[in-house]
Amino acid sequence: MSLLQTLLWVFMVLGPVLGTAVYQQFGMEVSILATSACFLLSALALVFLPSDQQQPKRQEGNLSSLLREMSDGIRFVIKNRLLLQLSLCFTWVGLGVGVISPLSIFPRHRAVTFARRGFEMD
Fold first, then answer.
1. Are 77 and 83 in contact (CB under 8 A)?
2. What is the pLDDT of residues 11-66, one digit of tens each?
3. What is the DSSP letter of 27?
4. Cα–Cα distances in Å, from 23 out to 6, 10, 14, 45, 122?
5. What is the DSSP string of the chain?
6. Residue range 76-99: average pLDDT?
């Protein structure tokens, strides 16, 4: 699981860099084509994964068992100091990315506004 998380975060960091390089070098069409090919290859890989083994169904109510399992998981994370620190770190990083992501629209909006008014931006 840690390898999967590591790969996920590596590609979250390197993905935009590689995407920008492909876009700058080859244009939008090739960039979208490469993204489409990656999604299709991912779907093809998922087809060949073995199915999960069937687990016996419990006789308990769905909502109560779900809430109990969630509360057990939260208590486990709170008791384990390392997991708590990692969870807080992921929370802050996620909030930071969520706050920063929409900010890229403002320079574009400003450039469009200035262009409509006849000003040039450097």
1. yes
2. 788 888 888 888 888 888 888 888 889 889 988 988 888 887 777 666 555 778 88
3. -
4. 25, 20, 14, 26, 22
5. -HHHHHHHHHHHHHHHHHHHHHHHHH-HHHHHHHHHHHHHHHHHHHHTSPPPPPPPPPSS-HHHHHHHHHHHHHHHHHHSHHHHHHHHHHHHHHHHHHHHGGGGHHHHHHHHHHHHHT----
6. 85
